[in-house]
Amino acid sequence: MRGGGSLPEVVAKLLEKVIRSGNPKPRYRVGPFMERVAANLKGVIPDSIFEKLVMRNYGI
């Protein structure tokens, strides 16, 4: 069973892109689409709504 997080190959591909970039950003998000969206929404929407979205996404 695989633990949480992204596959090493996905992270390595992004890391190569960052290294080759002439002007890298201070932060990069890597992972499935919904995880990246959730990271952006967490600071914008109320906690109760965020929790409902996460629970619905995971079928809880």
Task: Tell me about this structure.
The chain is mainly alpha-helical. It has a domain at 30-60. It is 55% helix and 0% strand. The protein has helices spanning 8-20, 33-41, 47-57. The two termini are 20 Å apart. The model has no long low-confidence stretch (mean pLDDT 85).
What are its keywords?
60 residues, mainly alpha
Question: Would you report the number of β strands?
Answer: 0
Estimate what percentage of residues fall within beta strands: under 5%
User: What's the SSE pattern?
Assistant: HHH
Low-confidence stretches: none
Main β sheet profile:
none
Structural class estimated from helices and strands: mainly alpha
Overall form: elongated
Query: Residue share in helices?
Result: 55-70%
The radius of gyration over CA amounts to: 15 Å
N-to-C span: 20 Å
Layout of strands and helices, then pairs:
Blueprint: H1 8-20, H2 33-41, H3 47-57
Could you write a compact summary of the structure shown?
This protein has 60 residues and is mostly helical. It has helices at 8-20, 33-41, 47-57. It has a domain at 30-60.
